[in-house]
Amino acid sequence: MKITKITVQQKNSSRYSIFVDNQYAFSLSDIGLLDSGLVTGQEVTEEAVEKLKDLSELDKYYQKILNLLSLRARSSYEIETYLKRHDCPSSMTKIILNKLSKNNYINDNLFAISWINNRQLLRPRSKIKLISELREKGLSKEVISQAMDEVDIDDSTALLSIIEKKRKLSKFKDDTKLIQYLISQGFNYYDIKKQINLS
Q: Quick check: 97 pLDDT over 70?
């Protein structure tokens, strides 16, 4: 058996179609092709072709995850859930997670710190709400606790910021509705009353 042709795909210029004995066999990303070392004219065994087909599947899932990560950072749990939802075999999921971790594309500790910082900067949250969000991302208690210790979080500043923002909306002119909303966001009732009186 021989690699007879390697061509760029028309619909995806970063992916290549590999032909064995003039028949389409599988595809690889540009990085996957480079890693495989395949060249036109190369002799391959049937066993090697089967392994390359498995590599092709792994490569497709890996590229999907890289595209996903280009939108925003993700936790390991989010990546694992995404792959499971897209029917990625568990053996491939482990390989992908290890590869992502090795290449520093995923790091739950850094993800947690980044999540907290972004929230505090763009959409302030209470400590309780932040912890809840991080749990939803599948992060362990240890990772969350460490991140919360590393980032300086001031509930009173976040609370005041939210009050000022919500007061601009007509439905939150009423203190009762505003207090109910703030309690649902994880803030303490007495802290809320204090900040409302100051605002």
A: yes
